[in-house]
Design brief:
31% of the residues lie in helices and 27% in strands. It is an alpha/beta fold and 453 residues long. The strands form six sheets. Strands 1, 2, 3, 4, 5, 6 and 18 form a seven-stranded mixed β-sheet that branches. A five-stranded antiparallel β-sheet has the order 19-20-23-22-21, with helices on both faces. The radius of gyration is 23 Å and the shape is globular. 43% of the residues are buried.
């Protein structure tokens, strides 16, 4: 069966669904293809379910920090099966709701793997359906990076971790990025023995001084963090009915035993099995190569956004949605809207959280920008002290001359919220003097901004 559409959208997450719906509302005929349940990674397998789990561990974290300060925390624990049931209440309705939403809008949904068979024709594998599009938009997201180690079949993915009915007693996380740190904090506070192994410096996109503080806090939590340690192999351990992990550190082999080994060593664009070569679509390890309008540089009928596109945008859900919005506008209005990124905040949702927006000190230095740094550890500030948080600090970079805020870096209570205020200040061009003129509600974490700048 062959059908023709104005637009074929591949994927149903933040980078694809908005494009499909906007074009359909403009009167276009639209088809959407996804081999996974509708909703995308963030809603089903990433941000949202992860944050639900964090919510439960926040309760323990607060109680433990305030032990002896008016709270008795003894006996408080995470009920993992009950927490999983609670999480499913957020996740399970999503695919059906998305299906109904697309149907109501008149978007034709096809369930199956999408694969190009020509420049503008996409087959739905496993069926006899072949779709021809005036345009094709790729918003297929990302997938776990393939690791060059022995025994990768014994790894548990981050998606599988979010579906664990019972929490293993011993967990080991491979990698030192968002996924490993966030899930390690969740698991440790839920009662597991947790090890984290990373081959270099962790959380490279964040300020190294604040990362050092977070690593120390992570170790205080009881998580066994091994840096500069490269995993070589994962093997079955028949004696302990578990997994043995072999690694090397400073030229010497070390080993670990865990009941579950979780892949937290990065993700890559999910585009290598879409048949892009057959469509004449150029792609790299960073995704579909696009121009400033998010249009394929080699096939003008193809656009791409989000994790599937080789753009300068960070692999974050809001960035995917933003890029998808621009794709829709360029499809409907012609290529009139080049991608320009506002300051983009990013957060590691550990407890406490680590956040950044704008440039790192190293980036400013490399570009020859002259700036001054405001940097201070703040466990004695009211915001941290009143909740017993010893890991709290900030670093703000301000350009000499223009007095523009170039970057802000936070770790501590409410960092995930305050960083949005810094992003707003940077986007609107507020200077430190402007921020100091603000009257904030007090006492709040936001009111600390006037002292940080």
């Amino acid at each position: 069966m062959s059908k023709s559409y104005d637009l074929i959208a591949v994927g149903s997450g933040s980078a694809a669904s908005g494009v499909a719906m906007k074009c359909r509302r403009a009167g276009w005929s639209v088809a959407l293809i996804d081999e996974r349940p509708l909703g995308g990674t963030c809603a089903l397998r990433g941000c949202d379910p992860k944050k639900v789990l964090i919510g439960a561990t926040e309760a323990l974290d607060w109680a433990e920090r305030l032990e002896g300060k008016g709270v008795r925390a003894s006996g408080l624990e995470v009920d993992w099966p009950a927490l999983m049931r609670f999480k499913r209440g957020f996740v399970e309705p999503v695919p059906e709701n998305r299906e109904k939403s697309f149907a109501k809008a008149g978007v034709d949904v096809f369930h199956g793997h999408a694969r190009f068979t020509s420049a503008n024709t996409v087959a739905v594998e496993g069926s006899s359906v072949s779709l021809e599009g005036r345009y094709v938009h790729i918003g297929s997201g990302a997938k776990p990076r393939e690791l060059d180690i022995h025994g990768t079949d014994l790894l548990t993915s981050s998606e599988e971790f979010l579906e664990l009915e019972t929490l293993p007693r011993r967990l080991l996380f491979v990698g030192g990025g968002y996924i490993s740190f966030e899930f390690a904090h969740i698991a440790a506070r839920a009662g597991a023995q947790v090890t984290l192994v990373h081959r270099s410096r962790p959380l490279k996109g964040f300020d190294p001084d604040l990362v050092t503080l977070l690593v120390s806090r992570t170790r205080e939590l009881g998580i066994d963090v091994h840096l500069e340690t490269e995993v070589l192999a994962i093997e079955k351990n028949e004696i302990h009915d578990a997994r043995s992990v072999r690694a090397v550190r400073e030229g010497k082999e070390v080993s670990f035993v865990a009941d579950c080994v979780v892949h937290g060593a990065g993700r890559v664009p999910a585009v290598d099995d879409l048949g892009l070569d057959d469509a004449g679509v150029e792609f790299s390890s960073k995704g579909v190569v696009v121009n400033e309008y998010l249009q394929s540089v080699s096939n003008p009928v193809v656009y791409a956004a989000g994790d599937a596109a080789a753009t300068k945008g960070d692999p974050l859900t809001p960035v995917a949605a933003y890029e998808g919005h621009l794709v829709a506008r360029n499809l409907l209005e012609g290529n009139r809207h080049p991608v320009t990124y506002p300051p983009i905040p990013s957060v590691v949702f550990t407890l406490p959280s680590l956040a950044r927006v704008g440039m790192l000190e190293s980036e400013d230095t490399e570009k020859g920008v002259k700036f001054r740094t405001q940097h201070r550890d703040t466990p004695g500030w009211f915001t941290a002290r009143r909740v017993g948080e010893e890991t709290s600090a900030y670093k703000v970079l301000v350009e000499e001359g223009s007095n523009r805020i170039l970057g802000a870096h936070l770790v501590g209570p409410h960092a995930e919220e305050v960083i949005n205020l810094f992003a707003m200040a940077m986007h609107t061009g507020l200077t430190p003097r402007d921020v100091k003129k603000m009257i904030f509600a007090y006492p709040t974490a936001a009111s600390d901004m006037v002292y940080m700048v």
